[in-house]
């Protein structure tokens, strides 16, 4: 079994699976317990679950499964994600004994990512999300326009906001949380576009928001829109 710290699902080995399974079955097959007690039921349940997780993992290390995955990127991804899922369940059970002698803390723990590329992709997505959140706190000169009506009541609202650094750049947002913005063709979450939402003039942004609101709101004059 490898001794370096386990970081990614792709680093899990059959030796890891065998070693952790042997450890768990050893602690679970301890002194006899009284049938009918909660301790007996819990121990019996775990002795049933562990082989199931182990079997799912061992299947992924069969020669034919590995060979097939190496020839198909989609199957390779499915294989690694299946390993991560089953390994994490097995490691979560084992974590209850992490203070017991013989527990390999550097290897026997859950993993968050499939591999280094998976982690890097998440970090990039996370940074875009942080940038979007930071940008949202700077919105100024906002206008709130009621959304489409249902049973006489507006459903949601649209917000028009000015770029804090450019007086002539405005954006059209859906809902007060500014979680989604119009990029010129469709409403997309800012974290997926990574671009500035401030693409319109004030008049165009207001007109676009009104266009997506109900007809009653669209008939209101722009002068009636009140800054928030």
Question: What's the short story on this structure?
Answer:
With 228 residues, the protein is of the alpha+beta class.
Give the topology.
Blueprint: H1 14-28, H2 38-60, H3 63-71, H4 73-94, H5 116-136, E1 140-146, E2 149-150, E3 153-154, E4 157-162, E5 170-174, E6 180-182, E7 187-189, H6 190-193, H7 202-212, H8 215-218
Helix pairs in contact: 1-2, 1-4, 2-4, 3-4
Structure characteristics:
single chain; alpha+beta; five-stranded antiparallel β-sheet; two-stranded antiparallel ribbon
Q: Strand order of the main beta sheet, please?
A: 1-4-5-6-7
Mean pLDDT: 78
Order of helices and strands: HHHHHEEEEEEEHHH
Would you identify the regions where 5 or more consecutive residues have pLDDT less than 50?
135-139, 215-224
Number of helices: 8
| Overall geometric form | elongated
Rg (CA only): 28 Å
Helix content: 40-55%
Total beta strands: 7
Distance between the termini: 62 Å
Give the DSSP E fraction (strand runs of 2 or more residues). Answer: 5-15%
Helix/strand-derived category reads alpha+beta
Q: How many strands, what sense, and barrel or not for the largest sheet?
A: 5 strands, antiparallel
């Amino acid at each position: 079994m490898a001794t370096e710290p386990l970081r990614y699902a792709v680093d899990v080995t059959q030796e890891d699976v065998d070693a952790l399974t042997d450890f768990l079955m050893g602690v679970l097959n301890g002194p006899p317990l009284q049938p009918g007690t909660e301790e007996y039921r819990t121990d019996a349940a775990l002795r049933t679950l562990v082989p199931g997780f182990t079997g799912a993992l061992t299947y992924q290390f069969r020669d034919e499964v590995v060979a097939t995955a190496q020839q198909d990127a989609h199957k390779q991804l499915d294989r690694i994600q299946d390993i991560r899922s089953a390994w994490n369940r097995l490691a979560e059970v084992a974590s209850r004994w992490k203070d017991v002698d013989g527990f390999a803390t550097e290897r026997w723990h859950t993993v968050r990512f499939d591999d280094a590329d998976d982690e890097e992709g998440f970090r990039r997505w996370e940074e875009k999300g942080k940038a979007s959140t930071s940008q949202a706190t700077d919105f100024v000169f906002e206008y709130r326009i009621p959304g489409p009506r249902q049973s006489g009541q507006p459903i949601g609202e649209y917000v028009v906001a000015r770029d804090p650094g450019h007086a002539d750049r405005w954006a059209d947002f859906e809902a007060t949380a500014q979680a989604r913005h119009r990029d010129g063709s469709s409403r997309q979450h800012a974290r997926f576009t990574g671009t500035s939402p401030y693409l319109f003039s004030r008049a165009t942004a207001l007109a676009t928001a009104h266009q997506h609101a109900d007809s009653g709101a669209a008939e209101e004059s722009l002068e009636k829109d009140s800054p928030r």
